[in-house]
């Protein structure tokens, strides 16, 4: 137990030292910001307070240690109708193997509709269209090191594409869940998207340039514009969850997360989950965001032929963008 607590302290201290030396605002200075978009109706409806409550196939997007609580094979797919007509699709598969422990594979993609290509000479469009997309795919492993402590890690590949330019990077996620034994309190911690820099490169950066046109001694030559490398949006989460009411026919769960990302200020998330048999109702609130965030949703579960089916819905009000909606389906078998 002492070693497990020491790991928590060392990771927290290391990350605290990394962020304490930077006081200037870094908003908008990281790549692949789609990684910070919440995944899964359950988590979204609970205000994105999910680092401690993670216990299903969506855990890979929040805290990889949570997949140790997936005691069967579980397949999840979800869709988020994000702001500005952006579409986010997620797929994950989790299970347990006696030799390697708990594992998961996942893919998360962000797509946008194509837009007309405009130039200085053709501001109304040149007749062609282009778009942008992002994708992350990876693999997770987790083990329950003791009855009260679980550790998980994910390795993932991130790609971004804008018109004919693309960038690629690699990142690691590490997470822990600690259950101290008091009632059913769970404490979760995760460090997400810790990885390489990303830099766009592609044929649209090719140019023809004359270094000194005033001399007129040579013809223009071929060159390429140089782009800058950008960090990943490394994010640290620390949260707790507890069942406040636990009766035979219903229960009420509360969760809370504190979140620090390297490119923005600290925010706090809280959420409730009210279980009424096969029906679940959820509500959440985000504190400290530039926009007000109030979320709500629910779900329904049923069993058939030794399989459990789960459908969930969530919506979050993000002022001034309006209503963001998400749906998902999960099968445990």
Word description of this protein:
By secondary structure, the protein is mostly beta strands. The chain has a single domain, classed as Outer membrane protein transport protein (OMPP1/FadL/TodX) (Porin, Beta Barrel). Helix content is 7%, strand content 52%. It is built from 2 helices and 19 strands. The protein has helices at residues 2-20, 41-45; strands spanning 74-81, 87-97, 101-111, 115-116, 129-130, 132-144, 149-162, 165-178, 186-195, 201-202, 206-209, 221-224, 235-246, 251-261, 267-276, 279-287, 293-304, 307-318, 322-332. A 14-stranded antiparallel barrel has the order 1-2-3-6-7-8-9-13-14-15-16-17-18-19. Strands 4-5 form a two-stranded antiparallel sheet. Strands 11-12 form a two-stranded antiparallel sheet. The two termini are 33 Å apart.
Tell me briefly what this model is.
This protein has 333 residues and is mainly beta.
Radius of gyration: 23 Å
Name of the level-1 CATH class: Mainly Beta
Kindly give the count of domains.
1
Q: For the residues shown, what is the average pLDDT?
A: 87
Major sheet characteristics:
14 strands, antiparallel, barrel
**Can you write the helix and strand succession as a string?**
HHEEEEEEEEEEEEEEEEEEE
Silhouette: elongated
Task: Assign the CATH architecture.
Answer: Beta Barrel
CATH topology, anyone? Answer: Porin
- What structural class do the secondary elements suggest? mainly beta
Total DSSP E strands: 19
How are strands sequenced across the largest beta sheet?
A: 1-2-3-6-7-8-9-13-14-15-16-17-18-19
Number of helices: 2
